[in-house]
Amino acid sequence: MAQHESKRARRRRDLIRMKAKARRLNVSGGVDRARHADHLAVCSCWMCGNPRRFFGETTIQEKRAFSADACERLS
Ligand SMILES: [Zn+2]
Known about the structure:
Blueprint: H1 7-25, H2 51-55, H3 60-74
Bound molecules: zinc ion.
């Protein structure tokens, strides 16, 4: 595509493309069809949803915080 495209230009171009796709798929099913442009999955089943809810997983930040806390307690 464009050889000297700035990162901002790329983001704007991608957003337009993603909004067009969201409008085409109409995942939200409403008037505001581009609303889910950056997350097309409106489903929250066990495959798409938050892993904490279904498997009790902790986030990376939480794992990091717990391990830092454990290290602190050791020293
Ligand atoms: Zn799903």
